[in-house]
């Protein structure tokens, strides 16, 4: 049985792998000038501030804050996103690779 805490960890591990390959400095540039930033590829269209002047910046931080190997800001922003109605469905990587899958394989062989 996977506890809620383990479930949350497994979700983040799967998402981080498929969104960025665990690359905290990943930046994907979109045709409209927006960027997807950090280990969870959080979009500047709505969640963080980059050079786009009127973006909502719902996480109230710069997109560059999401590129730090210290994941504090990234986790705070990701938690805010998951509290939105779309939740984890916001991430294409989640919908295509993690949702509805047995995520326990991510820690198979680990001794906790």
From TrEMBL:
GO terms for biological process: fusion of sperm to egg plasma membrane involved in single fertilization. Its main location: membrane. GO terms for cellular component: acrosomal membrane; sperm flagellum. InterPro entries: Glyco_hydro_22, Glyco_hydro_22_CS, Glyco_hydro_22_lys, Lysozyme-like_dom_sf. Residues 59-77 form the Glycosyl hydrolases family 22 (GH22) domain. It is a single-pass type II membrane protein. Residues 1-16 form the signal peptide. Keywords: Disulfide bond, Signal. Interacts with ASTL. Belongs to the glycosyl hydrolase 22 family. Sperm surface membrane protein that may be involved in sperm-egg plasma membrane adhesion and fusion during fertilization. It could be a potential receptor for the egg oligosaccharide residue N-acetylglucosamine, which is present in the extracellular matrix over the egg plasma membrane. The processed form has no detectable bacteriolytic activity in vitro. This is Sperm acrosome membrane-associated protein 3. It comes from Piliocolobus tephrosceles.
